[in-house]
Every structure is written in structure tokens, then in C-alpha cells.
From TrEMBL:
Belongs to the glycosyltransferase ALG3 family. Dol-P-Man:Man(5)GlcNAc(2)-PP-Dol alpha-1,3-mannosyltransferase that operates in the biosynthetic pathway of dolichol-linked oligosaccharides, the glycan precursors employed in protein asparagine (N)-glycosylation. The assembly of dolichol-linked oligosaccharides begins on the cytosolic side of the endoplasmic reticulum membrane and finishes in its lumen. The sequential addition of sugars to dolichol pyrophosphate produces dolichol-linked oligosaccharides containing fourteen sugars, including two GlcNAcs, nine mannoses and three glucoses. This is Dol-P-Man:Man(5)GlcNAc(2)-PP-Dol alpha-1,3-mannosyltransferase. It is an enzyme of class 2 (transferase). The keyword Transmembrane applies. It comes from Kwoniella shandongensis. Its EC number is 2.4.1.258. Its main location: endoplasmic reticulum. InterPro entries: Glycosyltransferase_ALG3 (IPR007873). Keywords: Endoplasmic reticulum, Glycosyltransferase, Membrane, Transferase, Transmembrane, Transmembrane helix. Pfam families: ALG3. It is found in: Endoplasmic reticulum membrane. It is a multi-pass membrane protein. Pathway: Protein modification; protein glycosylation.
């Protein structure tokens, strides 16, 4: 005969109010935990964050004064272009000559034409608020797709929606988008759209569209070049030699089309002026604006020897990751290269043999390497990797420690929020970058999970 549960009120047992409170708090804790970490609630949480960001962005625009930095110069440069000037070396504004590719000029020309006047900042700020929200949703999509299993029954590493919280906490990010109207966020919007397309399909068409969007991002600002080493690796892995060459030609062709009004076979000076202005890799940076190298003397900062050393370091670390981390399959990079060069038209790896997080992890890591070895970082460059940091920290950059991850993120945000930069803020930024890269290289949990997934797939194939 089943025993009946004892009712404390009927049995005479003392009733404890704390018991009911503990049960309620426990249930609330589990609910919050599920809302922050369970995949089924990912878009519920992301949607709430997006709405919150929309409200916060509106309040910022209405209550915080716009910061006059580059917008007047953009409008002056656009005015010269719309006035018929096609010599890139002669297009300039109050902050100096035009140093951005052609798509930047076209986008800000649209602002110039459709705003009530070039000085109408408020409508432009609301357009940038739209850019901000769209960028957030694209990044959220990348995090969501990264947690998708690459094949049925494969090991999955969920990137929880809690990782999106830091994206709503950055004062610097809100300032760059909403108060300064720089072109960096526009370039990154195109880039994140490219990543989403590449991750969504992993077909030839998806890669072609993704590469086209990548080239559009490059057409806004050349910082997108920092992602190129990662893109080349991915094109080789997913498309093979022919696909890699097709992608390179596609990027070059789109750049040529965008620059067509400024290129001339009859007048080589115009072509040279465009290339050397829009893609000037030798441009010297001002020491007073550096965020990452304040702890070195100005003479050292400006020296050619330091520039060469940083370039060598950048190249070396890219090679280390390319050979030892970016081919998480049995046999590693050597096996991938051998297969790829034996069959030019065939991809060395099947999309299902690589984890869903592989595409953003390779691209984001390549970018972080480039930023770590950059000759100088200015404050608006924060937008180049801000949305990627939680992803990289969770992928191994925090060495598997949530506390270290929070500390690294806070250290980086503090460094970017410190104005002007100091010896300590610059050192903290560089050290944080190095710690993240070292964690990604040596102790990435996602990399280990990825290898298990690939080995499991290989074993299943052999059994079949």
C-alpha cells in the first residue's frame, strides 16, 4: 500500500516560511539560467536585447551631444566627388585627404544627397542606429549558427546567448556607431553579413555571395584585409584551389568595378592615385592617437624597424595558426594541403567534417592576430573586433575560465575607454590580446571538441 505524503500542517510539523522562499528562488534561478544558456531560448533573449539596444540607442541620440570628428570631412570629400572630381589624390576635407576605398565615398554620397543638408546629423544618427541593430542581429546569427551541429548526431558546442550581454555594455561601441558616425561599423556590417552567408549554406553559391559581400566590406575600409589570411584558408578548405582562385578574382573584380570612375588606362596617374590613397599600407600614424603602443617612446613608435618587426610577427603567428590550428582534422594541415594540391577542382574537406564554428573562429582569430601586431590602433578601430571578443573568449581564449574571460573582456574595454591612452591601458590591451591568442592556440576547448567530432565522423565512415 502506497504511503501518503505527510502534510506538515496536518501532522503538526512546524512550517518554515523559508522553505517556500527557497523553492521559489530555486525555480527563478533555473528559469534565468535556462533563459541565458538553453539554445531553445536563444532568439527570445537576443530579441529582448535588440529591443533594449533600440531604446538605449534612441535615448543616446536624443540626450548625448554628437561628437564632431570625421563627419564634416566626409561630407566635404563627398561634395568634391559629386562636384565632378575624379582624381583621388585631390579629394580632401578638413582632416586631410581621402584615404578610404570607393564604396565609402558612395555610401556617404547617399547621406549627402538624401539628408536635408550635410549638417543634418540627427537623421544620419538614426540610420546608424539601424546599422547598429542590424549588426547586432547578424552577430547573434553567427553565434547561433556556430552552435549548430555540422551533421546529425555530431558533437555540438553551443554558444549561449549570455555571450551577447557584453555586446550591449560597451560605451565605446555605442559612441562609435551613434555619436561619431565613422565608416568602420559599415565595413563590419558587410563583413558579418558575409560570414552569415558563408555559414548558412556552405555551398558554392553561398561562398560566392559571401566573398562578394566580403569584397564590399573591403570597398568601405581596408581593415578588412586583416581577415584575408583566414578567408584564404577557408576557401582552400571548402572550395579547393580553383575555388580559392575564383574567390581572389571575384574580390579583385568587385574592387575594380567599385573604383571604375577613378581608374583610367589613358591617364595612369588617376589609377595610381586611387590605389595609393584607398589602400595605402605605408601610411604613418600619429603617436598622440595610439591606443595600443603608448608604452613605447615616440621615436620607437615611428621607426621603420618596429614596423618591420611587427609585420614579421604578424606573418609568423598567422603561419603558426594556419599550420597547427586551422585544420582540425586527422593529419592536420599537411593532409589537407596534399589532398588539395592533388585535386585542384575538389575541396580538400567536406563541410560536414568541420564544426559549424570553424568559419567564424578562423576569420576572427586572423583578425585578432592582425590587431595585436598593428602598428597603431585608433579608438574607432574598437569596432573591428568588439563583437568577436565573447566568441573568441568562449572558444578557448579565456582558457576555459569564465572568471578569466570576464577579466580579459573588462581589461580590453577599460583600455579602449581610457582617453587619452596611458602606459598602463596600452599594456593591458596588448597583454589581453596575447593571453587570448595563447589560449586559442594551446588550450581551445572548441578545438578539442572539433577534433573529436571529426574523428567520430571518420570512424563512422570506415565502419560503413
Amino acid at each position: 500500500m502506497a504511503t501518503r505524503s505527510r502534510n506538515p500542517f496536518r501532522s503538526g510539523l512546524p512550517y518554515s516560511p523559508s522553505h517556500g522562499t527557497n523553492v521559489m528562488l530555486g525555480g527563478l534561478f533555473n528559469l534565468v539560467k535556462s533563459f541565458l544558456f538553453d539554445r531553445q531560448y536563444f532568439w527570445h533573449f537576443a530579441g529582448l536585447l535588440a529591443v533594449g539596444e533600440l531604446v538605449l540607442g534612441t535615448l543616446i541620440i536624443q540626450n548625448v551631444p554628437y561628437t564632431k570628428i570625421d563627419w564634416p570631412a566626409y561630407m566635404q570629400q563627398v561634395g568634391m566627388f559629386l562636384g565632378g572630381e575624379r582624381d583621388y589624390s585631390r579629394i580632401e576635407g578638413e582632416t586631410g585627404p581621402l584615404v578610404y576605398p570607393a564604396l565609402h565615398l558612395y555610401i556617404y554620397s547617399a547621406f549627402h544627397r538624401f539628408l536635408p543638408s550635410p549638417d543634418s546629423i540627427r537623421p544620419a544618427q538614426y540610420v546608424f542606429l539601424i546599422f547598429y541593430i542590424v549588426t547586432f542581429l547578424l552577430v547573434a546569427t553567427i553565434y547561433y549558427l556556430a552552435g549548430r551541429p555540422s551533421k546529425p548526431n555530431a558533437i555540438r558546442r553551443h554558444y549561449p546567448q549570455a555571450l551577447l550581454i557584453p555586446l550591449a555594455l560597451s560605451k565605446r561601441a555605442h559612441s562609435i556607431f551613434l555619436l561619431r558616425l565613422f565608416n568602420d561599423p559599415i565595413a563590419m556590417l558587410f563583413f558579418y553579413a558575409a560570414v552569415v552567408v558563408m555559414m548558412s549554406g556552405k555551398t558554392k553559391s553561398a561562398w560566392r555571395i559571401g566573398v562578394a559581400l566580403f569584397s564590399l566590406a573591403l570597398g568601405v575600409k581596408m581593415n578588412i584585409l586583416l581577415f584575408v589570411p583566414g578567408l584564404l584558408v577557408l576557401l582552400f578548405q571548402y572550395r579547393g584551389i580553383y575555388g580559392l582562385l575564383e574567390g581572389a578574382v571575384s574580390v579583385a573584380a568587385i574592387q575594380a568595378l567599385l573604383a571604375a570612375p577613378f581608374l583610367s588606362l589613358a591617364n595612369p596617374h588617376l589609377t595610381k592615385a586611387y590605389i595609393t590613397s584607398a589602400f595605402d599600407l605605408s601610411r604613418q600614424f600619429l603617436y598622440e592617437w595610439t591606443v595600443n603602443w603608448r608604452f613605447v617612446a615616440e621615436k620607437t613608435f615611428l621607426s621603420r624597424e618596429r614596423a618591420v618587426l611587427l609585420l614579421a610577427g604578424h606573418f609568423s603567428i598567422i603561419l603558426l595558426f594556419a599550420f597547427f590550428k586551422w585544420s582540425p582534422v586527422p593529419g592536420g594541415t599537411i593532409a589537407v594541403l596534399q589532398y588539395g594540391f592533388n585535386k585542384f577542382a575538389v575541396a580538400p574537406l567536406k563541410a560536414s567534417s568541420l564544426p559549424s564554428s570553424h568559419i567564424p573562429l578562423v576569420l576572427f582569430t586572423a583578425n585578432l592576430i592582425g590587431m595585436t601586431f598593428a602598428r597603431s590602433l585608433h579608438y574607432q578601430f574598437h569596432s573591428w573586433y568588439f563583437h568577436q571578443l565573447p566568441f573568441l573568449l568562449y572558444s578557448g581564449g579565456a582558457w576555459g575560465s569564465p572568471i578569466l574571460g570576464i577579466a580579459l573582456w573588462a581589461s580590453i574595454e577599460w583600455a579602449w575607454a581610457t582617453f587619452p591612452s596611458t602606459v598602463y591601458s596600452s599594456a593591458a590591451l596588448l597583454i589581453s590580446h596575447i593571453v587570448i591568442l595563447t589560449g586559442l592556440f594551446f588550450s581551445s576547448p572548441s578545438a578539442q571538441a572539433n577534433k573529436v567530432e571529426v574523428k567520430k565522423a571518420t570512424i563512422e565512415k570506415k565502419v560503413q
